[in-house]
Amino acid sequence: MELIIIKNNIKFIHCSDIHLGANPYGIEERFEDMGRAFMQVVACAISERVEFILIVGDFFHQKNLNAKTLEQAVNLLEPLKNAGIPVYMTEGNHDMATYTNIYSWLDFLCQKEYIYLLKPDTDDDGSPILRKRSGVNKIGGILEREDSYIVGLGYPGATAGVMINKLSAFIPDNEVKPVIIMLHTGIDKFLTEGMGGLREDELTLVIEKSDYIALGHIHTRYDNKDMKYYNPGAIENVKIESLTKNKDNRDKGFYLVNLAHDTRKVDTEFKKVDIRNSINIEVDITGLSSNVECIVSKIKAEVDKVHTNNDDIILNIKLIGTLIDGVTVLDINALKKEVKTLINVIYIEILNNLQSKNSGELALKENQTREEIDREVILKLIQNEGFEEKDAEKLINIVMHIKEQATEGTITMDMQEGMDIKGLVEKYVDNA
Prior knowledge:
Structural class: alpha/beta
CATH architecture of the largest domain: 4-Layer Sandwich
Radius of gyration: 24 Å
CATH topology of the largest domain: Purple Acid Phosphatase, chain A, domain 2
Number of domains: 3
Number of helices: 10
Largest sheet: 6 strands, mixed
Distance between the termini: 77 Å
Low-confidence stretches: 242-248
CATH superfamily of the largest domain: Metallo-dependent phosphatases
CATH class of the largest domain: Alpha Beta
């Protein structure tokens, strides 16, 4: 008779939002950066001899992969497979099959035994359910290990609260074994304006039946140990806008977790990933002329204060102040070209936030990000078209979502957002 020994501690890695295949702004180096970031997760898993890895959605950046991205994924997962470290994954909004397909690339990796894909299913009436994963068909949302249950709740989309309430009934009782949940959604109080997510109270039923709630979807790190949820954030910066938010919590990485089997005590260590240096600086050019060389010289001096080596960097610059000749419109392309001759950059963004000497001219608010400025301008345009305030607010959220996905090079949208667009357009046409 085989003797099964259960370790007192369950050691595992929790990461999310890997976004393999992302190539923001068409920069080939960034494609490789995404792979290098995940390789550090793989290396840690092997050196720490973890029991398993959780990847909580958005393993891929696009639903329709190219061959190069699939090859990269297989090469990264192969060492884990060879080391006998299982990878448990649930879908993110970027991973899900398109509406015309039922088979995703995560399904492919699962069938090839590189990962265990855990996600909800539907019953005959179309209601969401969780089935225990079968070794035969490799389909199911619940996997029972000798030491724990792993449950994949997937990406609940715009109906997160309702969906989670229904699925919580299927979560196994955690009195016998620890229960670990994977859920690709955000907690609303940590989200930026216009993003949908769950309220903490909507997690109550899940919290009661689990010991560790592994979150994904939001690219910056946050957690609440009392309420058992942890969000490591993306392991690399997927877009340059992410560099301007949460300045006190910019580190990218993943959690190395120890969960005591008997006491259910959770200890987490956030392991930082070494990523490409991304620098955000605000350059005050008050008193300078609009001469390109003069402005670039000032930019170089400010960058040198925070960047001390020759590594290729991503550079995000905000120009502020008032030029001595009163000019507010600059040749941004000329500035970028000149900066590239002095600083090793793979991508540069320059935001012109200069103010006119004419105090009566509308000026941007202090410390506004590019995203905030875009939102303000687009919202004003929508309002000028005659939309009611509540519809304008709803529409701007959808427009900004589409803009974000277009900037990243992919359009991913859940069904609810499609219905929102359709309803608003129909209403506008009817009233025209």
